Amino acid sequence: MNFEDSDEQKLVRDTTASFVKRHCKPTDVRQWDRTGQLPEHVYAAMADAGLLAMMVPAEYGGVGSPIADCAIALEEIARPSVDFATRLALIGWGAMILSDFASEEIKSEVLPKVVKGEIKLSFSLTEPASGSDAASLQTKARRDGDDYVISGQKLYSSGAHAPNNMIVLAARTNPDVKKHAGISLFLVPNNLPGITINRLDVVGRRILGLCEVFFDDVRLPSRMLIGQENSGWTYINKHLERERILLAANYLGNARAALDDAVRYAGERKQFGKAIAEFQAIGHMLADMATDIEAARWITASTAWRYDQGLPCVKQACMAKLFVSEVFARVTTQGMQILGGAGYTHDHDMQRYWRDARNATIGGGTSQIQRSLIARELGL
After folding, report:
1. Could you report the per-residue pLDDT of 318-369, keeping only the tens digit for each?
2. DSSP character for 127?
3. Contact at 8 Å (CB) between 121 and 188?
4. What is the pLDDT of residues 237-254, one digit of tens each?
5. What is the CA angle 19-89-166, rounded to 5?
6. How many CB atoms lie within 10 A of CB 271?
7. How far from chain centre, in Å, is Cα 183?
8. Which of 221, 70, 246 is nearest to 158 (CA)?
9. Which residues of 159-207 form beta strands (DSSP E)?
10. Burial of 179 by CB count in 10 Å (0-12 exposed, 13-18 middle, 19+ buried)?
11. Residue 1 — very low, low, confident or very high, per pLDDT cuts 50/70/90?
């Protein structure tokens, strides 16, 4: 088992790093954070660079890269902001759901356009009354002739408002069975009549954006059902490991950027006649940050390797999501402390890393839920 980058993975890393340098300049990223936008020209450039193709199986026009390679791409593109990697992760997760369970008609129609950047994908599961208890969702989809009629509300949906976006939507199709057994997945264009999408005014994650989505008797052709009716929860569970590994890679990349910025600032900032990096208190903080990040790197790489080898990795994926998200939160908090007053200004990126990290231990399954799942895997 060798978790050092292969020659092919070095190419993925270098190519993605070059993409970031060209298309995600610090001054631009700060402006996009202020205005709350992920510009369409950047997304188009992701498609041109082949980043979207990595997330889509080869039989539908993509490359179908191993998750270890996808994780490397996400790690690098997350360095300026987790939101760039989150946009890619949504494609990676949604494309696998569709390729595994959607009809051949939908796969052939949608996935090649995803590769080209003509269609985006997002996921809507959480609702105002169902967060960690996600299977208690109340959004309903009832059959009416050749259509489903969807009513309800979703919350904290990343990137749901984006142009040409299709939402992988979890809705209840049978209210008379146990909650997990009555859920179905649908592919819903976000511009259908009856859909209202509002951007939430959030602390972080402002480039991609979090949304609330209202469905007011939205009519959707029945062919947009993903797989079998009432099997949605099974489909969601099948790819949770993939989601958690990609989230860990995302957080790892931005944590690395926070460390780099903190090291650079500590070497430049002088107090009491010397760089603050020379003070033991600062040096030890940086050492702890670097150690945390190295451990995060290895748990992410090893879990991705297990996934690609077809080995069981439910426990390891939960551990990776838990550990790396909390490393991200710790490292950015320490980075803010090292930068002091400078970190509290928008002239430095550390405040954005810190704001975005507050979501990491909540979104995609809270740290508390990950611990409960790990405990279950231990037989507790």
Report:
1. 999 999 999 999 999 999 999 999 999 999 999 999 999 999 999 999 999 9
2. B
3. no
4. 998 999 999 999 999 999
5. 110
6. 11
7. 23
8. 246
9. 165-172, 183-189, 195-199
10. middle
11. low
